[in-house]
Inverse folding.
């Protein structure tokens, strides 16, 4: 979810039925800004605040990877 403007390109943003802004997902369910080959963020310098605060290697990270 986008709660601040960090400069995410518009082509990666979707608006839900309540007007909330989220990162778009592709058919595989992963974020549209994720490089599927390298598994790296293609907009790292402009990634959303939530992505910046997500603890790498933390419980939620490991659960998502499972
Ligand atoms: S950090 Fe991950 S979830 Fe966040 S914008 Fe980049 S690819 Fe998407």
């Amino acid at each position: 979810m986008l709660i601040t403007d960090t400069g995410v390109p518009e082509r990666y943003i979707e608006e839900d039925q309540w007007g909330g802004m989220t990162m778009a997902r592709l058919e595989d369910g992963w974020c549209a800004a994720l490089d599927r080959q390298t598994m790296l963020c293609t907009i790292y310098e402009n990634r959303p605040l939530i992505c910046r605060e997500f603890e790498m290697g933390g419980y939620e990270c490991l659960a998502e990877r499972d």
About this structure: DSSP finds two helices and two strands in the chain. The pocket of iron/sulfur cluster is lined by residues 23, 31, 33-34, 41, 43, 47-48, 51 (CB under 6 Å).
